[in-house]
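Quick note —
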Amino acid sequence: MNSGILICTNGYEGTWPAIEYGAWAAGCIEEPVILLGIAGELPSAPMDVMSPLGHISARAVELFKEKGLRYSLDIQEGKAEEVIPREARRADCITVLGPLGRTRLRRFLLGRSIHSLLEEIATPMLYV
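Predicted structure written out below.
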């Protein structure tokens, strides 16, 4: 397994505790962080820092710098349920994620995203 921690966010504020926990864990084991940002559709212009994903990514970078962590950012377009497993397999490291802010109707019809992610990700995963 490659070392490091893959922290996932789609810009939903509920993913912030997962970012904080992942940063703490990375600091404890002295490993680098990959912040995976999942955008439903990437804009043609550069990412606006005021978008939810841009805002939470900027906060995360400040946190990583404050903790002295090595980090990289990876913004992917697509559905989180497809992007996260693909990138977790590619990175082959610990994956940290939190709730993705799905609507109640979507959760009722399709189930919680975490269930499909647990089935798809073979490497260690922390759900915060």
